[in-house]
């Protein structure tokens, strides 16, 4: 109900006063005395009264328009402060669907190479990286989200964006594309992929998995990179990795895999250089601690014989340190997963993988 001599109802005055008090608390720059603000509202109403606005008989339609504008003003205020999503997790887990990322090593060549020592891909810009995803049992209605993040914790909260030169409108890679793709370093060559930006600025590509074709267990998916790690106004030589999450339509995460990637001009040279630096840093007697890396299951080159040893072995090991125990157990799980995929006999390995996971968890 509108107070006599006032343009605003009591509830509207209360809401406006609360909003200004909220703004004051938000940035510490606006200093408004509640009494002074109420007095200003009264002055505004009196001024409007002098123009014979408040004494007009509004029709029901006009009153609805006023209420709608007031509601819209409140909604806009809420939209100006979007919820910021947390930093993306980086711990891998297979989950209930035994989610696996598989690198199609048969197609590597001069444009990209994979380092098994570093569990890292080195690839030219604007070249295709073929990957495959597997989840068991196969279920429809699942999605894969690919998010490029900085590997080091001190940079992880910052979104990975293309450099200014590669985002320029006259760059050939930006022609005839959805404007939402321009900032994304990574693109998926799937016509139903959607490009999203979280409240904290992190970019991701969300793609429906569908179902594997008859006779195969994996779903192939190709990715292309449109900026280099060395670009100074972009990634600026900071190491990056791809986080792949298996999600439901409601964005519930069911599994997570990651793959370190460097987009560069000379993949083979950079691979050899980083492997040499890694070998030097973990040389015997150096006293430095080597961080265990999880290998990506790799498909064998054509003609290479696949091991068919299906005998089950028992190990009784004594290991120093709980972290080292977890790393060994996780490594054993991933190695068996890769062997099951290569041998096209994942059902044989699954009971032992599940047993290893129970120990790991």
From TrEMBL:
Q: Which residues are noted in the entry as Zn(2+)-binding?
A: 163, 166, 227, 231
Q: Per the UniProt entry, what are the Gene Ontology biological process annotations, in alphabetical order? A: apoptotic process
* Protein name listed in UniProt: Cellular tumor antigen p53-like
Q: Record keywords: DNA-binding included?
A: yes
Keywords annotated in UniProt: Activator, Apoptosis, DNA-binding, Metal-binding, Nucleus, Transcription, Transcription regulation, Zinc
Site entry: Interaction with DNA? 110
Give the residue ranges for region: Disordered.
Answer: 267-303
Residues forming the p53 DNA-binding domain are 90-277
GO cellular component labels: nucleus
**Gene name per UniProt:** LOC105362659
The major lineage groups are: Eukaryota, Metazoa, Ecdysozoa, Arthropoda, Hexapoda
Q: Which family does it belong to?
A: Belongs to the p53 family.
How does the cofactor attach, per the note? Answer: Binds 1 zinc ion per subunit.
For molecular function, the Gene Ontology terms on record are: DNA-binding transcription factor activity, RNA polymerase II-specific; metal ion binding; RNA polymerase II cis-regulatory region sequence-specific DNA binding
């Amino acid at each position: 109900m509108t107070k006599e001599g006032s343009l605003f109802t009591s509830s509207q005055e209360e809401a406006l006063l609360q909003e200004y008090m909220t703004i004051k608390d938000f940035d510490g720059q606006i200093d408004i005395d509640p009494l002074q603000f109420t007095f200003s509202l009264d002055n505004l109403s009196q001024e409007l009264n002098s123009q014979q606005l408040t004494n007009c008989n509004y029709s029901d339609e006009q009153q609805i328009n006023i209420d709608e504008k007031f509601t819209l003003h409140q909604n806009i205020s809420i939209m100006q402060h979007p919820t910021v999503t947390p930093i993306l997790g980086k711990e891998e887990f297979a989950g209930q669907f035994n989610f696996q990322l598989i690198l199609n090593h048969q197609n590597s060549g001069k444009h990209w190479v994979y380092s098994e020592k570093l569990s890292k891909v080195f690839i030219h810009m604007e070249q295709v990286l073929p990957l495959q995803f597997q989840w068991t049992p196969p279920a429809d209605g699942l999605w894969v989200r690919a998010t490029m993040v900085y590997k080091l914790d001190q940079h992880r909260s910052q979104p990975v964006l293309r450099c200014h030169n590669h985002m320029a409108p006259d760059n050939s890679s930006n022609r005839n594309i959805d404007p939402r793709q321009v900032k994304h370093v990574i693109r998926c060559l799937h016509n139903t992929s959607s490009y999203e930006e979280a409240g904290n600025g992190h970019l991701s590509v969300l793609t429906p998995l569908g179902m594997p074709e008859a006779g195969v267990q994996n779903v192939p998916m190709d990715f292309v990179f449109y900026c280099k790690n060395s670009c100074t106004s972009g990634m600026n030589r900071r190491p990056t990795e791809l986080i792949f999450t298996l999600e439901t339509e409601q964005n519930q995460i069911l599994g997570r895999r990651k793959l370190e990637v460097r987009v560069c001009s000379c993949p083979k040279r950079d691979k050899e250089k980083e492997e040499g630096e890694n070998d030097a840093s973990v040389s015997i007697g150096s006293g430095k601690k080597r961080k265990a890396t999880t290998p990506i299951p790799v498909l064998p080159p054509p003609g290479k014989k696949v091991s068919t040893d299906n005998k089950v072995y028992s190990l009784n090991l004594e290991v120093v340190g709980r972290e080292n125990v977890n790393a060994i157990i996780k490594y054993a799980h991933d190695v068996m997963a890769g062997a099951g995929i290569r041998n096209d006999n994942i059902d044989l390995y699954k009971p032992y993988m599940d047993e290893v996971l129970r120990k790991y968890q």
